[in-house]
Amino acid sequence: MSTEELREEQQFVSGLYARLDALREEAEAAVRASLTQVGNGLQARLERDVLVAERSGLLAAFNAGENGLCFGRLEFRDGRDHHIGRIGIRASDIERTPLVIDWRAEVARPFYLATGHTPMGLRRRRHITTEGRDVTALHDEILDLSDTTRTGHEGADADEVLLAALDSARTGRMHDIVQTIQAEQDRIIRAPHHGVLVVEGGPGTGKTVVALHRAAFLLYAHRQLLAKRAVLIVGPNPAFLGYIGEVLPALGETGVLLSTVGELFPGVSATGTDTPEAAEVKGRAEMADVLAAALRDRQRTPEPGAPVIIEHEDGDLVLDWTIAQEAREAAREADVPHNLGRPHFAFRVIDMLTQQLADRLGADPYGGPNFLGPDDIAQLGKAIAASPEVHAAIEELWPQLTPEGFLADFLEEPTPHLRDEDALLVRRPRGAEWTAADVPLLDEAAELLGSDDSAARAMAEAERAKQIAYAQGVLDVSYASRTYEFEDKDDDESEVLLAHDIIDAERMAERQEEDDHRSAAERAAADRTWAFGHIIVDEAQELSAMAWRLLMRRCPTRSMTLVGDPAQTAEAGGCGSWESILSPYVEDRWEYTRLGVNYRTPVEIMDVAAEVPRVEHPDFQPPSSVRSTGVVPWARRADDLAAAVADAVAAETRDDGRLAVIAPRELHDELAGKLPGVTAGEALDLTRPVVLIDPRQAKGLEFDTVLVVEPGRYGTSDLYVALTRATQRLGILHAQELPVALKQVAATP
Ligand SMILES: Nc1ncnc2c1ncn2[C@@H]1O[C@H](COP(=O)(O)OP(=O)(O)OP(=O)(O)O)[C@@H](O)[C@H]1O
């Protein structure tokens, strides 16, 4: 191995870190200085905010650059020579020469796509491995076969770097894969952002990690739009979101909101749980009509012949079926949400009651015209409109409702709108905790109800227009700030990232509203009506039809990436096929793509796991595993299951890496008692060496070693998920019979 090459690369990388340090210090100093700057007036505040925002964004990127700043090098046949890194950095010279190119730039693509067959102009591709700031290894691939120059770092196996990454011990947190993105993954990451892209693939094919890199790529390629509208990533549960939460910050990206569907109704935290059957009922598409019908029932009339009598200073008012019916029709014809229809209803009722009173008070006993003039009638109308009794009667017939109040009423008594057997499943007393399956229903209710904030909106809009106009002026004069070091686009269209690109006038103005310094993602989290720039849904196969309605409302442009695996569907309410999910929203205008290589599970484990779906689908083909470890899965029968699990955990725990015991929930208490220091329950800490989870919690996660306990009690898809979580070793412990699919697993005493 040539130490000279290594030394030269080290020198380059050290220089790069020195530049990173300088840039970071500059940015920190700028933030500090701006924060202490007490300028006078709005302009000074705006300028300060611009600076703080752009420098803070840069700081996040610089901090991300600390680990694995530079990991590749491309030498082209035409003499071009580029280093590839996590972020782009330029030198301080007058030309602002790119030192390292952002992995997302077009010019970096051959790093991921070039092959001996299609070298994309490359002579040599180098993988640079670093630990901290030290270069520890180089792997070179010669792509131009006529080139006879050798560096001494040509590896026998081009996949060495990938395999080292796949073999490494797990930490309980997902890591980025910028150094080893595979060609099939690269195409998905960089696919155009318009429209719906479905990414399907079996366990371990990189769906999640690819989706996260896609978010990073889209934020890079469409920064202006997405910094403003933010990207939403939806995952199945909070533990999973914790597991993937470090990937985007490690790529320098912060404009992303990670959320479960249950967290998407601001002000409501879904702490309750539903039975799977209740969740299934609540998730059905027909619930939209059911809620609409329940709401129509809240728009009432008195029974014919049993009018509401309202005491009034000028005599009783009779609000009968005819008046209420006519007012209700008029309000419904307005075709607006319920709460916005209420003023229409109230207006008609007041109008008709006024007429009623006027007819009575001004009647000419001799049959002539009414004595009252228009002014008198207007006076009567005012008095009626101000009457608390009249308001109470209107409220009774067409109440002002909140989504929470309306849904709580509905769940307390879901008949007659639901069939008896379904009503039995979802019925619950008022005041019960909200569940994740309630959130799409609350969102639906909010849509049906609307809120009468038109006056407030008009005022806010006028104020905003003023702010935008002013902020635009400030931006125009204050940007001589071409001090960005970022390499942001490929060489051909090389362009320095301007402050304008990061903060435009609109966003600037938004920042000013009530001194609102939150990021777009933070503001989006607090706003039910926020329209995201792009939505990524992981484990998309699990979402109910009602959850899809909620998500589609959050993404009117339908710029979405959906990743999932129908074979892993666990929720009874999960949608059956991509067609059935998507056709109501985009018909057949969506792209479908598949990932076919399993990067997680070695072939020995996958052979065992694949037998599970094959019981029902004999032709089932799992993704092909990229690795083989020679370690064969085992099964052990034990009467004292908890003791056997404790022994197995002791035997399988390694110094580094993570072990998961996956067991049915009802065994958790007993198992936890035998596993000191284990983490379990809702507040899981996945970074701990041993975790105890049930199959649903295991979704999307991975561990070095997995012990699956009592698999006979799992459903097919839960079992398939559980068996495909290990990167190295799989053991099965059972007291009951093994399911047929696992009978072949080597039994150990
Ligand atoms: N190109 C790659 N380089 C390095 N590691 C990779 C690559 N692709 C995938 N991986 C790793 O493979 C593992 C599985 O990836 P991921 O969790 O994204 O798969 P998945 O398809 O979402 O799986 P599942 O459906 O089972 O949840 C992760 O550890 C991921 O980092």
Automatic annotation (TrEMBL):
Q: Which InterPro entries match?
A: DNA_helicase_UvrD/REP, P-loop_NTPase, UvrD-like_ATP-bd
**In its UniProt entry, what is this protein called?**
AAA family ATPase
UniProt keyword annotations, A-Z? ATP-binding, Helicase, Hydrolase, Nucleotide-binding
Q: Domain of life, per the record?
A: Bacteria
Q: Which residues bind ATP?
A: 201-208
Positions of the UvrD-like helicase ATP-binding domain: 180-602
